[in-house]
Predict the 3D structure of the following.
Amino acid sequence: MQHLLSDQTSGILYVVATPIGNLDDMVPRAVETLQTVNVIAAEDTRHSARLMAHFQISTPMVAYHDHSDERQTQGLVERLQRGESVALISDAGTPLVSDPGYRLVRAVREAGVRIVPIPGACAMIAALSAVGLPSDRFAFEGFLPAKKGTRQNSLQALKDETRTLIFYEAPHRIADTLQDMAEVFGPERELAIARELTKTFETICKGSAKELAEWVASDSNQQRGEIVLIARGAKTKAVDALDAESIRVMGILLEELSVKQASALAAKVTGQKKKALYQWALDNQDK
Ligand code: SAM
């Protein structure tokens, strides 16, 4: 295990989440941290100037990207080792989530310097919390490839993933991506779009891949702003294997019993595996 105990004389790297639109989502601890650190490492210092002005933060900023040269990362590590405190921010939301910061955090951890996260807004979590798709198991896929062929290959590789899938998507690609999802995942796969979260034109919409693809293609307003796209996972193989009689029995039992009780009883009645029945119930509970 690496550097569980940090060097007490070093400073602290704070990884600070900032709002994804609505500045009122800035948490007080984030403001206080940005006001008191020695320096803020920002993805884009000009972009973050508005946030700084709004919260009267006058701490000096330096630009930091993951493609910043090694010297810049080392420069920040050395400042931390000298006892200075540094805050890492990105343009919006949580650093490192489809945003710069990974290389810095890794280098700082390897140097044995303490890292403190200041949690806050994150578009994928905000979207997941509101779209009404299964949230017990999910996979964040970030941005899909921009080119159609490569994007379709990526979707093909995800086709049988049973966890809920979360993507970030650019507005000028959303119509094509939805069309690709309808083709690759099938027209009936349940999808959701969360657009412009926390902002004036916030729109959250759920439907089949076919419905959403047609709606977005026909309404150019849906092809604007910032977008999180969420796809329900594929049905499990166990579901495919369930015969009509088991589904009928489960349907009746679930009206009166918990998922656990219904699958245990149905397993005795039908001879099906309890686990398969249990999974079927989880996948079909809200249908
Ligand atoms: N680090 C950020 C986070 O924590 O969510 C994500 C940064 S990534 C470069 C930007 C992408 O996040 C956008 O293209 C969009 O897909 C998503 N996003 C950011 N803000 C959003 C918002 N207010 N509503 C919907 N999606 C948003």
User: Anything to note?
Assistant: The beta strands are 12-16, 39-42, 61-63, 86-89, 114-118, 138-143, 164-169, 190-195, 203-208, 227-231. The chain has three domains: 12-121, 124-231, 244-284. The longest strand covers residues 138-143.
